[in-house]
Design goal:
nine-stranded mixed beta sheet, two-stranded antiparallel sheet
Amino acid sequence: MQGSYSFQPNVLMQLLDDLDSGALKIVDLTTPLGPDTVVIDLPPQFAPSPGLTVTEIARYDDRGPAWYWNTLTMGEHTGTHFDAPIHWVTGKDLPNNATDTIPPRKFIGPACVIDVTADVAQNPDFLLSVERVKAWEGEHGRISAGAWVLLRSGWSARTSRDAFLNVGADGAHSPGFHQDTSAFLVNERDILGVGVETVGTDAGQAGGFTPPFPNHTTMHGAGKFGITSLVNLDQLPPTGAVVIAAPLKIIGGSGSPLRVIAIAPV
């Protein structure tokens, strides 16, 4: 019958066989999460998001003789994390816009990795242009609907807080997306969302753009997602990997720390 689909169980078994044999690999794209994990700095007039605080509950002692566990206190947008549409004012009234209502199918998609490390090494304020995306497509093929577009900038090599945030007298300096590019990826390519190595999906100077923070404004207004503070993007090919980025199922959650993994060819 036209439109019908017959699932072949051997597809999943082949996936497991390829993982076991080493034909495929799992790449962890997540930065370790601890009390020293860098969070975004906001201007002093805005409420800050706290970093992670770990408080011990019990550790094989009188408080719990056979177990160890902790209390965690942190903002939703700490470390490698997920931005849901409800995170931004443009997405606040969309249906299924929070971490507990987004369909889980949308957490999984093919990865399109655009390498701009050389550009960022020369200019930390580099913005990915539509022309650059189209040039990438000319080499690697059209970005498919439902893809994660990952900006490989080399920023994750900046391990100190000062270097990672890169704040000057005029604010933070870090790469991101030109506002036309965010619109192009949403309207012309219908992607799932974008992922970056930086602390946020907008460039460091994006507060002064028109509109301010255009990637957040455009992506979340269209029901798309963001992933931040990624690592190990150099271990992924430009195409051919699959990314799984599932946030915690927080009721009404605007975001969540993530364990982002990719399945990639060796």
